[in-house]
Amino acid sequence: MFTTCIRPCSRCIILYTVVFTLTVCLYSHLQHQKTATMKRLFFLFILLTAIGFSAHSQKVSLSGQVVDKQSGEPLPGATISVEISEQKHFIVSGLNGTFILKNLPNGNWKVKAVYVGYNTYKNEVTVSEAKNMVIEMERKSNDLSEVSVNGKHDKSTDASAMQADRKATLVQNSVSARTIEISPDLSVANVVQRISGVSLERSTNGEGQYPIIRGMDKRYIYTLVNGIKIPGPDNKNRYVPLDIFPADLLDRLEVVKSLTPDREGDAIGGAVNMVMKDAPNQLSVKANVAAGFAGKFTSEDFTTFDNSASLDRSPRATNGTSYQATMKDFPNSAFSHADKHNPIASLLGLSVGGRVWKDKLGIIVAGSYQNNYRNVNSVFFGTETDMNNGDAKVTGIEQRQYSIQQQRSGLHAKLDLKIDDNNKIKLYAAYLNLDKNEFRSASDTNLQLGRTGAGTGRISNSYRTYHDVQQIFNVTLNGTHKITKHFGMDWSAVYSKASDNRPDEATLGLVTGVSKDANGALVQAPLNLDPVSHREFSRNSDEDKSGYLNFTYKSEIGKADVDWSVGGMYRNKTRTSSYDDYSLRPTDPSNQVYDGDISHNNFSVFNGEGTVDNALNYDATENVGAAYAMVKISLKKFELTGGARYENTDLSWQSAVPQTVKGRTGSITYYDVLPSALLKYSLNKKQAIRLSYYSAISRPNFYEVIPHNGGDPDADYQEIGNPNLKRTTADNFDLRYEYFPKGLDQLLAGVFYKRLNNPIEYALENVGTNTYYTPDNFGKASNYGAELDITKYFRWFGIKANYTYTHSEITTSKIKYYSTSTGTSQMTVNQSRPLQGQSAHIANVSLLFKDDNKLGLNAQLALGYTSRRINTVSQFLDNDIWQKAFTQMDFSIEKRITKRWFVYAKVNNILNTPYQLEIRQPYTGSGTVGAVPHQELGKNTFVRKDTYGSNYLLGVKFKL
């Protein structure tokens, strides 16, 4: 008889050959022996041949799913083997636990399944047609009387991140280290944009920098490392730029969207928590090296400058306030620049970790270095409001070219010591550094002064170079102690310091113009040195010394488990900032021509003493004390957490502005009681509903309350301070439904509502003849919306999608100009608008392919959409500046080439998505002569457009 095979074996081939040969020979013989008997024999041979081949062609398939017998949860990555006639066929279950083996012969099968931590599954089945089966696997049981299990689960996996969200008391969304590793993103800022409800504010080079959660601006969010708040390096603000953190140092990234009483209360929008890499149970070594290229360098050169000879701090800070700086303190190299062809980006990463001393001591050290280059092309229109009719009009057009080098580096180490079953100590230290070298050339054409037609007018050129170093250092020592069976405590002692040093920012000013001669030809005037160029020095630090202490008592009341918690924290924050701006004026003669070589020009220092009375020379101290009480009740399917937090804030400052300036020194003391309540109801093992309420605040940034006049050199308008600024308070409500059907699949759907009192926003205000950007409180505002987050896997393919709708509304007073019989007048009217930075629609879609087992291939195509949002609030009716909606696409792929070695590639900004600003008011051409580029009559008034190009990275990884 014939034996069936999955593919023709040697035995079958010989047999089929013999049958075929005999059939042919017999048929030839029958041509001469045409008897009935012989004919019957012929047809018998034909039938036997057909049966043989039919037996071989009758193939069936085996499909099914591997699940946990107790929970029914799918088990991805289980190895299934099928033995048929001493031949074995293998397959690995997909991301949703499913598998399929095709073209199997029918007969008796021996099915076996193996999965780490589970007993081996064995079964014998007889199959004559397609078979679908569920393989239920039982967990291995440990004899706890003999075995002490001290290990911990891997927090870097997708499953761990999902479990963290499911088990969390509050509302949060997480991204695992593995997802980050195979994503297109290199910094934490770019990772966070993939989470539902989060959009980004980007830096000059187009990379993500600050998150906006549920339409709430970066001021309403704080940043945590391992649950501990860290200070920011900015010299004005509290918030932390997330582009300083390399993404490959994380085990998990969490976006927290509600608060419990044991968490600090200044997070109206939410919080970003970075769970850093932890020590693995076994020795682990991971290395990573890559090189990259920016697409713009195929047609453009990168501009460099030499800052090595520049001072590290200002002459006044180095030599004292009586020192008079001279040109010897300011090397000309900062005014010089050169071109570099095709600069190559680089990336290095290394982590080593494991456990020693009978697994009691865990150690991990990890480092990361990223060096990239970007060219940015920008065009910006200065605007103002026409006081005759209230229309927006453009006053100048500025072409800007940026060459930006960023070096992002990080180093962190963690030691965790398990003294015994009741006492654990952890020591964590991290150092983050972001170096930035930026060259900017700008050509500003005044569209009103000296303009006689298209292409004419006064032109101001400038070259600016700066080297900026941002640093964050954190060391945390904490302990967890179980004092009795029901009573425990934990504590943390924290020192953190963030700093930013931008020494010798050099701005060379140049002036020229274009006019028409008698024949109507365009003539450009010589390029002369501007009457004033600048050398600026800014340096600041924000230092925190904090202590945390918490007590927990576990009890039972009836059938309910009740956890009682009390605790508190105290933080002393000291902020110091120094700033000097030295004005350089050309000498011998004063109207010098610039020929491209700065060594041919002469300068003198106009203010050798610096700017000791600038408002950026200030010291601030903030002491925050807090205490809380909280109870957590677990009863069957219910989990209720509630309590209140008390926070006292004492802020004082002293600025170096003249004694006559109001608000030169000041102090603010206030306290807040912040209640919260969270209810979780589990419908079953896979479904739950969460309902939460919490009260929160947002403190003003330091520099906002200090009187000043100046601002960011990249800002489109000068800033002024507001000593009367108040904190923002808010009530926050959240309702979410969670469904985790199987494996890594999930469905999250929810709604939220926030009611804000005294929200802080920046607005444009006219003071005299100047327009300033200033913070202010704007009464009351509401913010509500809905979120939908879906993840679905089909074996190796998956789709992750989320959508957030947000609607906010704030009503403020605006100035409206109108015509009268005697001329133009103005009135104050109320206008409702969204909160600054809030987009109505945010959506992300990622198409995934994940096969870590068979092919060792992972790929992701990520698409993100952010609808329009207000960038700058104007004091005039309908003159707010909006950022246009944008769509960004990124791609990444990783392939295993051997057991330990991988190659990968990342492509960012495939669509070359620009950053664009506009005033949603028709352009009328008011105040300009002739055609203006980028402006179209009757269309929205164009304000700004920055383009960044695509970026490519190719690398190799090693994992042990």
Automatic annotation (TrEMBL):
Domain TonB-dependent receptor-like beta-barrel: 433-910
Keyword check for Signal: no
Gene3D superfamilies: Carboxypeptidase-like, regulatory domain, TonB-dependent receptor, beta-barrel domain, TonB-dependent receptor, plug domain
Keyword terms: Cell outer membrane, Membrane, Receptor, TonB box, Transmembrane, Transmembrane beta strand, Transmembrane helix, Transport
Family as reported in the entry's similarity comment: Belongs to the TonB-dependent receptor family.
Record organism: Chitinophaga oryziterrae
Domain TonB-dependent receptor plug per the UniProt entry, residue ranges: 170-271
CDD domains: ligand_gated_channel (cd01347)
Ranges that cross the membrane: 13-29
Family annotation (PANTHER family): PLUG DOMAIN-CONTAINING PROTEIN, TONB-DEPENDENT RECEPTOR-LIKE BETA-BARREL DOMAIN-CONTAINING PROTEIN
Protein's name according to its UniProt entry: TonB-dependent receptor
GO annotation, cellular component aspect: cell outer membrane
Bilayer topology annotation: Multi-pass membrane protein
Region (Disordered): 145-165
